[in-house]
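I'll show a record.
***
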Amino acid sequence: MLNFINPFGIDRDREDFLRSVNRKAGKGNWFWVFKVGKQLFAYELGMQLYEDAYWLFLRQDINRVKELVAKLDVFVYNRHDLDSGLDYRKQTQPGEHYNDIALRRCMRRFGVWFKGKDIFDVSRTQYDDKVVPFHLPHLIASPDKSAKSWIESNRLIVIAKEVEDKCKLAEILVK
């Protein structure tokens, strides 16, 4: 049987939360997914939708892209966020920081890169994922329709301990 955990509040202490999940489910027996209605989507697809919200946000005003090009890089918590590069799964801080990664990936999609001298803290700016609108608001159950609310409202951990459960998950997951 597939069981689900809502990771709401994981921002407070990601590592502690994930240690707790490993104790409950066992390492390798849980997976990140995104849920829309009754359909489960692969983590990568859910994060691509998150990134697409940023891409569309930047595309609406090219001056936003120019502002980012004028920076050395972007971060949310501190300069250690830069270690994640373009990898959403590489979270090295106590809290999650996806918006800096999404911005880097969007810069690459636009075919530009950072050229400045200053590292830019994107928290509490127009690039904060609580501010960037999610482009498919009908997919979010909460009244807030930001990129952050996409992750908070739709991301789940699915626990699949048995081989049968893992096969069932692989069968129903949209990739």
Notes: The chain has one domain: 3-174. The longest helix spans residues 43-60.
